[in-house]
User: Fold this.
Amino acid sequence: MTQKKVSFGARPKPVAAVIDPAAADAFVAGGAEQPTAPQLVEQAQASAEKVKFKRLTIDLDPQLHKRLKARTAEEDTTIADVARKLLQEWAYR
Assistant:
């Protein structure tokens, strides 16, 4: 059995930055730092335009799924876009 020797680099030096406890809590709670005022304005404008979608899961015959994948690839679209369009047409007719 051969022995491998693994060498590690130098230990990183501690960062001398002051950590804001509120920002740290927000990061842990939401996965991001607290946004600045301009970012809050952008987020408010974006959230007014965004629609929160609902997920729909359906079971398909494997041959139909294969055909859908091929057809959507030919037309440079997605199965989800085709399904949304067809469902919207059906729901509002």
